[in-house]
Design goal:
single chain, alpha/beta, five-stranded antiparallel β-sheet, 11 helices, 13 strands, binds adenosine-5'-diphosphate, binds iron/sulfur cluster, binds magnesium ion
Length: about 325
């Protein structure tokens, strides 16, 4: 069943120099219980897409969409209400998500008090149980700690426990492993996978790292210049990419092996976010561009549920 249904989402931010088109046209259909990766170069609109779901766009930003629904509720009206109840955020910087001057016990309790009707003792037991569920070995000791006494990996587990404490069943994880060592990051991904299967969570995994897609995700959507240009099961997207941009991302991976590989540079850069785009936004960088690509929006191509936007015929992919 589709939990998140987003069609033609756009987010524009007015500035004195003109509108920034942070998100131009994003489609996302995410089923309950799925880890759905969103990948693309820096600046292509990944974070702003997640922020729109949380109702946290910059002041004055305009959100438009043909459909922007979470579990049947319109996010344009209800994002602030759903945030912290159904939808939680795991960000790149767990230290910034925690209050440096309050103990973990106090911070867990604040969340539980706000979201659960439980007496104090039961809240303490629940806080310890949630920390244990995130794989922290000595929850009582963690509860007595302050954030700076914990490693980055432990802090990220506390942030995940806090999200669980709210009762959230949909987590937006925005580059959750980028600030962590590779092996610690892999443990956090394994934790998220386990929580998805044990607790029926659904995760939107924002990343610029193809390894995160390969290791943790069931499906993936590729963003380019604020537009979703390819989506499908991870195996299809990685092994038979349809869009030349996805192929370029995969080709740009260093041969350093599967761990620690990041998106190396593709020649050229994404179009400026204030520009108007005619045709295919990738045309100036695309090795297979044709004259039509510069003038006409590309049509949808597909192999079953694997879909992408390109003027090239399916059999060219
Ligand atoms: N508050 C803001 N004001 C103006 N432009 C912004 C703001 N936030 C993001 N942007 C621009 O929107 C585009 C998309 O940003 P973002 O969603 O953060 O990309 P990503 O997460 O994929 O790196 C970028 O060009 C960025 O500079
Ligand atoms: S539409 Fe044209 S420019 Fe765009 S990705 Fe396809 S071939 Fe390349
Ligand atoms: Mg980002």
């Amino acid at each position: 069943m589709t939990l998140l249904d987003v069609r033609n989402l756009a987010v524009s931010i007015p500035t004195p120099e003109g509108d920034v088109h942070a998100v131009r046209s994003v489609d996302l259909q995410i089923a309950r219980g799925e880890i759905h990766g969103v990948i693309g170069e820096s600046g292509c609109g990944k974070t702003m897409t997640g922020m729109a779901m949380l109702g946290l766009v910059p002041q004055g930003a305009r959100i438009t969409a043909d459909r922007f629904h979470f579990d049947g509720e319109d996010l344009r009206e209800n994002a602030a209400h759903l945030r912290g109840r159904r939808i939680g955020l795991i960000s790149q910087d767990p230290a910034a998500a925690l209050n440096p001057v309050l103990s973990i016990a106090r911070q867990m309790d604040d969340v539980l008090r706000a979201h659960r009707d439980m007496p104090r003792q039961a809240r303490h037991a629940e806080a310890a149980a949630l920390l244990a569920a995130t794989g922290l070995p000595d929850p009582e000791k963690v509860l007595k700690s302050y954030p700076h006494q914990l490693s980055g990996g432990m802090q990220q587990r506390v942030v995940i426990a806090q999200a669980l404490a709210t009762g959230a069943d949909f987590l937006i994880a925005d580059e959750p492993t980028t600030a962590l060592d590779v092996s610690v990051g892999a443990q956090v991904l394994a934790l998220l996978r386990r929580l998805v299967s044990e607790r029926g969570l659904t995760v939107l995994m924002i990343t610029h790292d193809m390894d995160v897609i390969a290791e943790a995700c069931d499906r993936a959507t590729v963003l380019y210049a604020g537009r979703s240009v390819e989506t499908g099961p991870v195996d299809d997207v990685l092994q038979r990419p349809g869009h030349p941009y996805t192929r370029a991302l995969l080709a740009a991976l260093p041969d350093a092996g599967p761990h620690g590989a990041r998106l190396a540079a593709i020649e050229g850069s994404i179009p400026p976010p204030r520009s108007r785009i005619a045709g295919c936004a990738f045309a100036p960088r695309c090795p297979q561009a044709m004259p039509v690509c510069a003038t006409t929006s590309p049509p949808e191509r597909n192999r079953a549920i694997h879909r992408w936007l390109c003027h090239l015929p399916e059999d060219a992919a």
